[in-house]
Amino acid sequence: MSKWVYMFGGGRTEGRAGMKDLLGGKGANLAEMAAIGLPVPPGFTITTDVCTFYYANGRTYPAGLEDAIEAGVAHIASVMGASFGDRKQPLLLSVRSGARASMPGMMDTILNLGLNDDTVLGLIETSGDARFAWDSYRRFVQMYSDVVLGIGHHYFEELLEDLKADRGYILDTDLQAGDWKELLGSYKALVMKRSGAPFPDDPYDQLRGAIGAVFSSWMNQRAITYRRLHDIPEAWGTAVNVQAMVFGNMGSDCATGVAFTRDPSTGEDTFFGEYLVNAQGEDVVAGIRTPQHLTILGKQANQSDLPALEELMPDVFRQLDAIRRILEKHYRDMQDIEFTVQRGALWMLQTRTGKRTPAAALKIAVDLAREGLITREEAVMRVDPGQIDQLLHPMLDPRAIRDVLTTGLPASPGAASGKLVFTAADAEAWVRRGEKVILARVETSPEDIGGMHVAEGVLTSRGGMTSHAAVVARGMGRPCVAGAGAVRINVTDRVMTVLGREIREGDLLTLDGSTGQVIYGAVPMVRPDLGKDFSLLMEWADSIRRMGVRANAETPADARVARSFGAEGIGLCRTEHMFFEPGRIVHVRQMILARDEDGRRQALDLLRPYQRADFIEIFRIMHGLPVTIRLLDPPLHEFLPHTDADIQEVADSAGVDVRTVRQAIAQMAESNPMLGHRGCRLGITFPEIYAMQCQAIFEAAIEVPPKDAPSMVEVMIPLVATRRELELTKAIVDQAAKDVFARCGKTIPYKVGTMIELPRAALCAGDLADDAEFFSFGTNDLTQTALGISRDDAAHFMDAYHRHGVYAKDPFVSIDCEGVGELVKIATVRGRAAHPGLKVGVCGEHGGDPDSIDFFEGIGLDYVSCSPYRVPIARLAAARSACRRIGNGHKELADSTA
Ligand code: ADP
Ligand code: MG
Ligand code: MG
Questions:
Q1: What is the distance in A from the centroid of ligand 2 to the CA of 239?
Q2: I need a labelling partner for 54 at 20 to 30 A (CA). Which of 34, 130, 552, 860 fits?
Q3: Last residue of a domain, which of 244, 276, 309?
Q4: Residue 336: CB within 6 Å of ligand 1?
Q5: For residue range 837-873, what is the model confidence (pLDDT) as tens digits?
Q6: What residue stretches are annotated with the PEP-utilising enzyme mobile domain (predicted)?
Q7: How far is it, in rounded angstroms, from Cα 667 to Cα 145?
Q8: Greater confidence, 483 or 316?
Q9: CB 295 within 8 A of CB 271
């Protein structure tokens, strides 16, 4: 026969914390607390199996449940020395729902169950307080009617207000026992009127009604929505906890409270909590009375005049403080607890893993490891990489008032304030004269990069999470709100309107890239201090992880940030970004518009010194570490001028007329540039471009003294599909090396490798590996080409795709393991089979995504490369994945903090 009911308390505890699947989180932890000898009011838990049975069998209960419940009630009654429905010593119960994961959508708790016109007299007797007894009774009728019978609170509140007005009372506490008793009469009449049946007087009817309400609340709309949002399976079901009532509202020696065993916002090892004297249940969080602080320190910190529990009930406080330590040692994590004091006796009503801020998560994990309560691996597993992400960016002061204009997509985390500008050129000009700016564009293009770089934050009115603005801003660590549809931008008049409000150029604006809020004015900022705990956790992560972590960086500033965040080299240096700088772009355009090779060479000769200088600086910054440089990749037309002024300038500098330039631009237009004249195709059609770049690279590498040189220069060819492409372009690199080495009379070691970003390259990786000395997966393009989805056009249908669950996650954020991931796996296996020891890494956006990193760890890649600001996230994520692989991930006793 199945066991449907588990007792706890009174020396007869049948469950443990490990039984959450069966007993729910609340039930399992009540059992655990009882089992380790903490004062828990006795009770029993009806299992989640009953919930499953209930729904599988047309909302009926299994045979034997009724008896088991009676046995449970008898257990409680014998421990409490009371009897359910008894007029002399009435037993009162609470009925509490409790799923595996904490679920706010579930049924509210019912307190004081078992009261009726008879038993209330017993309660008057045992408590010696008629007012308390009648108040408890009416609270019960109100709660039960609301939760079980569906008669809303407000009906009862109206009756209460009427009575108060009638008697000239102001506060609830003005009501006397007789008033409450009279009010109960009107409550019951109300129930009769609205439900067509009398309020259930029989305690067992009340209990059955409450239990049924818990089970049916599993399928109410609130719960269904909550489960969908939090990926909680419907099959889990909920448990029901039935427990003896303890009273925090029986007088001034009674209290009720909630607490965290450490400060949940800072992680500080201080007891943190609030309580109310002479109150019941959720009065503390309901905010009707000002709660008091547990500790004297807490009271002082909050400048409260009300006495702390430490002062008012020192014995109870000492006991509670001891329990705080016991629970932390036992659960090995910070706990969130509920307690009640009845006539000086302390009762524990709940414990669970406490939610905490990212800063607290970091501090608590490191402290617990230092205290020896958890291992370093566990500490690493306790901090979510997403929390580190939040810590790395400045945040808006949570206490500041925000004038929110609208909310767009939270495209790149962090917050920023500045004066509003509408063009990249303005951004650069304003910053040059010392202003801080927010750049607002309808959408951004590669031309805007300069402006984005100097701006504090970027706002776009169009585009998704993977739009140009979003990707580039994340790469730069620049806060970005993208796709704010309510924003209308008028560049000509330098003004934008948001839902009828006009914001002009120069007005102060704040962006919160973590929430997507666009805020008028400057909101004060706080930068979380990363401090020693952060470096310590990172050190632990580094000692655990197997995969290397490099950064995608092309500017000296980015390279420096990357190194300071612990990058072990550059995995992707995009040379085209160096072309956009003012003073260079004109030569690039000259090169593109040149009529013949000679003309191109002339322009390239002007560009080479710039590239060489850039490489020298980056090599110095990354000294001792490997640097992978990708040769020119984007289609050339991206560099072409668009505005009349720019076209005129190019025409002048190239010595041709404006019409010729316009013709050239029209000629180069492509209808599908992502699959157009780009990548190694440029190297094959214009070998002199790659030759110039390689010459600059090798000259730079030779120029820096050995102690300032990178450990390895890796030249990477983009968009290769066939072996012949790699042969042709590799020959250019090798020839350039040979020429430079001969001219300088010096050689340096270098490698030539290829990106794998086309499905054909992945499938033919064995062939490519004969010529390639390393592989780097360009997972952005590989995703586009494998899925046949253009990132720039995905916004139109990705929403619908997400709603219908076509891809579990946005495949441009988190790698599509089955498809794109399979290509990565195949290429790695085939590449290494042909070329044992081949170094294989990832340099797409996925290199900084924890879920993707987990996949890459699983298939044994050598390293990931990500934007500088994601380096710590990748280090932590790689360590966590390594932990999981070797089975060090500790199974938590309590709920996960997720
Ligand atoms: P939630 O999941 O919303 O926290 P709970 O079941 O924990 O719901 O209960 C709600 C409130 O009722 C809490 O403040 C709790 O302390 C109080 N409560 C629950 N059971 C009892 C009981 N047996 N005696 C006294 N108060 C109780
Ligand atoms: Mg609770
Ligand atoms: Mg690419």
A1: 14
A2: 34
A3: 244
A4: no
A5: 999 999 988 999 999 999 999 999 999 999 998 999 9
A6: 435-516
A7: 76
A8: 316
A9: yes
